[in-house]
Amino acid sequence: MSVIFESTIKMVEGSGEDWYIELKDTVDDRVEICKDLAEYSKKVEELGSDYGGNIDEVRWIKNDSVPLPIMDAIRFEMSKLQREIEVETGKPLIDKES
Fold first, then answer.
1. Contact indicator for 48, 58 with CB cutoff of 8 Å
2. Which residues, other chains included, contact 87 with Cβ-Cβ below 8 Å and sequence gap of 6+?
3. b/e string for 43-76 if b means 16 or more Cβ within 10 A?
4. Bridge partners (DSSP) listed for residue 4
5. Strand, coil or helix: what is 3?
6. Which of 8, 33, 40, 96 could bridge to 61 as Cys pair (CB 3.0-4.6 Å)?
7. Over the chain, what is the mean pLDDT?
8. 19 exposed, middle or buried (CB, 10 Å; 0-12, 13-18, 19+)?
9. 72, containing H or E segment
10. Crossing angle of helices 37-49/68-89, nearest 10°?
11. Domain map (residue ranges) of the chain
12. Each residue of 9-30: pLDDT tens digit?
């Protein structure tokens, strides 16, 4: 059994700037709504704990309604969070050889 999470970036209905991430555990179809990346990180950790922290893949999806400036801001925040985690753990999150 592969543990795969789907992370879909969506816009809050009726908003031009508020976004969220819909996190889906494809093994049991649980869905969590995350209002920011800090909440997303926490929810991934919580869901992943059901599998001993072994997540095989995270699939990222962007809803068509998400404008480019919002995606740029999210990417920037993700990059910043990645650097913080790498400094804290002392190892890269992404295998550079793959």
1. no
2. none
3. bbeebbeeeeeebeeeeeeeeeeeeeebeeebee
4. 57
5. coil
6. 8
7. 92
8. buried
9. helix 68-89
10. 60
11. 4-89
12. 999 999 999 999 999 999 999 9
Lookup: tokens for 19:
């976004």
Cβ pair 5, 55 in contact under 8 A: yes
Residue 98 confidence (pLDDT) above 60: no
The token duo for 46 is 């919580």
DSSP state of 8: E
Residue in this structure with the two tokens 């072994």, named with its chain if needed: 54
* Identity at 57, one-letter amino acid code: E
The residue length of the chain stands at: 98
The pair of structure tokens assigned to 67 is 């404008």
